[in-house]
């Protein structure tokens, strides 16, 4: 049996072999970065709760021309065991990514590289531009992300739009309930009712992120756990997700002041039916950027790769070829 399995294995061409490199950060942490492809380097930043390797179906057709660098942000994916050392996780991620970009540029002997980022990853890029400017980024694909999280008198394009307070109240409720268990590392040790509430709220967030019926059905099937499964559910990143959510609710994330620094070409990819960031307010961001164009996928929600996989691939390919 083992002999047959070995005989039938096909060695993938080098372009399609995913490898992981470790990049040393300023605090000595080794951040895992998945790398695939052979060609011009580019960086992709993942969303909240996402494993960066979920980008693979979209980039595999392009690995003959590009080398994709996929960092695992602290607490997620292959970096799930790496702890945050700052409450302001967005700015810590921005600091981490600045090191990653510098190391890639040094290793590949280039001045700058294209970057694409979605949702939380795109929020990290707004923070990066505020702190480090755009000299190391040749062009940028911003995927359904506003530079300001909280609604304000002059800005109603924040997270969840007109439903912001309603949804934030739900998040506050779950955070308040989990705070007494902050020192408990295993999700299985939480009270069952709290586990049910926390996973229900996670499902709510995921469902708000999509628009297409098929996407909603997929999320319902993949996230629902009956009582026996939930009782044994090892949710390894639950504590990290709660911490990030708490920072989102508490800190006044607003990077609009950095927009004028982003003079590089920007493509603003907008989900036309995004429930997280209103499309009309995202279009105002395009107008605020000095050198931007926009693409609106009219049937897509916030999670563009899930709602419109073909459309997302076409935009990414066009962005890289420009």
TrEMBL record:
Keyword Hydrolase listed: yes
InterPro entries, alphabetized: AB_hydrolase_1 (IPR000073), AB_hydrolase_fold (IPR029058), Carboxylesterase_BioH (IPR050228)
Domain AB hydrolase-1: 40-309
Coiled-coil zones: none
Alphabetical list of Gene3D superfamilies matching this protein: alpha/beta hydrolase
Gene Ontology MF: a single term: hydrolase activity
Keywords associated with the record: Hydrolase
Annotated protein name in UniProt: Alpha/beta hydrolase fold protein
Species name: Psychrobacter cryohalolentis (strain ATCC BAA-1226 / DSM 17306 / VKM B-2378 / K5)
Lineage summary: Bacteria, Pseudomonadati, Pseudomonadota, Gammaproteobacteria, Moraxellales
């Amino acid at each position: 049996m083992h002999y047959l399995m070995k005989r039938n294995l096909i060695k993938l061409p080098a372009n399609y072999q995913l490898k992981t490199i470790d990049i040393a950060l300023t605090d000595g942490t080794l951040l895992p970065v998945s790398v695939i492809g052979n060609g011009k380097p580019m960086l992709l930043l993942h969303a909240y709760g996402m494993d960066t390797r979920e980008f693979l179906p979209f980039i595999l057709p392009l690995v003959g021309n590009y080398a994709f660098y996929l960092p695992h942000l602290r607490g997620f994916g292959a970096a799930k065991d790496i702890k945050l050392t700052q409450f302001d996780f967005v700015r810590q991620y921005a600091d981490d990514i600045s090191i990653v970009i510098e190391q890639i540029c040094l290793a590949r002997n280039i001045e700058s590289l294209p970057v694409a980022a979605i949702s939380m990853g795109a929020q990290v890029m707004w923070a990066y531009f505020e702190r480090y400017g755009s000299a190391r980024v040749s062009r940028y694909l911003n995927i359904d992300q506003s530079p300001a999280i909280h609604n304000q008198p002059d800005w109603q394009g924040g997270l969840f739009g007109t439903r912001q307070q309603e949804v934030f109240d739900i998040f506050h409720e779950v955070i308040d309930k989990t705070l007494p268990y902050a020192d408990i590392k295993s999700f299985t040790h939480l009270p069952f009712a709290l586990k049910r509430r926390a996973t229900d709220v996670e499902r709510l967030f995921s469902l708000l992120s999509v628009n297409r019926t098929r996407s909603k059905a997929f999320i319902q099937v993949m996230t629902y756990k009956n009582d026996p499964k939930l009782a044994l559910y090892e949710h390894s990143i639950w504590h990290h997700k709660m911490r990030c959510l708490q920072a989102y609710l508490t800190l006044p994330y607003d990077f609009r002041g950095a927009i004028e620094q982003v003079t590089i070409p920007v493509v603003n990819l907008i989900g036309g039916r995004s429930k997280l960031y209103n499309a009309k307010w995202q279009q105002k961001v395009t107008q605020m950027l000095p050198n931007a164009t926009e693409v609106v996928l009219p049937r897509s929600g916030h999670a563009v790769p899930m709602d419109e996989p073909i459309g997302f691939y076409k935009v990414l390919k066009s962005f890289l070829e420009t």
